[in-house]
Amino acid sequence: MSAEPSKPEPSKPESLKSEPLKSEPSGPEPLKSREEWLASLPRVYAAAGCVLRDASGRILIVKAGYREHWQFPGGTIDLGEGPAECAARELTEETGLVRPAGDLLAVSWTHPSAELDHPAGHFLFDFGTVPDGTPVTVPAGELDDYRWAGDEEALELLGPARSLRLRAAMEAAADGRVRIVTTHVSGF
Questions:
Q1: Where are any strands of DSSP class E within the chain?
Q2: Which element (helix H / strand E) includes 95?
Q3: Could you tell me which of 61, 55, 83 has the C-alpha nearest to residue 73?
Q4: CA distance 144 to 138
Q5: Is 38 helix (H, G, I), strand (E, B) or coil?
Q6: Which has more confidence, 68 or 94?
Q7: What is the chain's Cα-based Rg?
Q8: DSSP strand pairing (104-110 vs 179-183)
Q9: pLDDT at 27
Q10: Whole-angstrom Cα distance, residue 82 to residue 80?
Q11: How does the average pLDDT of the chain come out, rounded?
Q12: Gap between the Cα atoms of 60 and 162, Å rounded
């Protein structure tokens, strides 16, 4: 019995040639160093704000010229600063009022959006009540105006994201239970 001579394989057009299959890696990914792991974590915007009322029950809100809606006195948490410290610092910077943060009322987690490509966490604290007519000084260049607003007016002026936080804060103030709000609605 003789072996048949082998026939050459027909050549394939260049577009049909393929690389040999590579096997999938087996097992879990190798462990990352602490630095690699930290660098792989998502960036998160963190801020804190104040709910301060006057004796008539109105809420202090402020208006920045660079934002469409009014906002709570507050801002970005600095490195090495906690949320309550941030809220107290921002209240002083934005209004001239010096008060300690009271109870945490609400925490808001906002998923990334077109406006902000990473998540944001907002802490809203109770800053109690001040007498009607308490003088407020807004810094030129940072804020354009302030106002003491009733609940419904504040909800309208704050815009969608901040209104969700205010509603949660009002519920928390009523029953003493911190609220958590998770939303896709952006707004600082």
A1: 45-54, 59-63, 74-76, 104-110, 120-130, 145-149, 179-183
A2: helix 83-95
A3: 61
A4: 7
A5: helix
A6: 94
A7: 28
A8: parallel
A9: 62
A10: 7
A11: 88
A12: 13
Structure tokens at 44: 């998160």
Tokens of 49: 């704000």
- Could you tell me which of 123, 137, 159 has the C-alpha nearest to residue 51? 123
**What is the CA angle 99-127-180, rounded to 5?**
140
Q: How far is CA 81 from CA 2, 65, 162, in A?
A: 87, 26, 22
Residue for token pair 């999938």: 24
Strand partners, 49: 74, 124
Q: CA-based diameter of the chain, in Å?
A: 113
CATH 3.10.150.10 fits 43-183, yes or no: no
54's tokens: 């006057």
CB neighbour list of residue 98: distance below 8 Å, 6 or more residues apart? 88, 91, 92
Q: Do 122 and 47 touch, CB atoms closer than 8 A?
A: yes
pLDDT tens sequence across 95-152: 999 999 999 999 999 998 877 788 999 999 999 999 999 999 999 888 999 999 999 9
Look up residue 11 and give its amino acid. S
Alpha-carbon gap, residue 147 to 67, rounded angstroms: 15
Per DSSP, the chain holds a count of helices (H) and strands (E) of 4, 7
**Domain boundaries of the chain, sorted by first residue:** 43-183
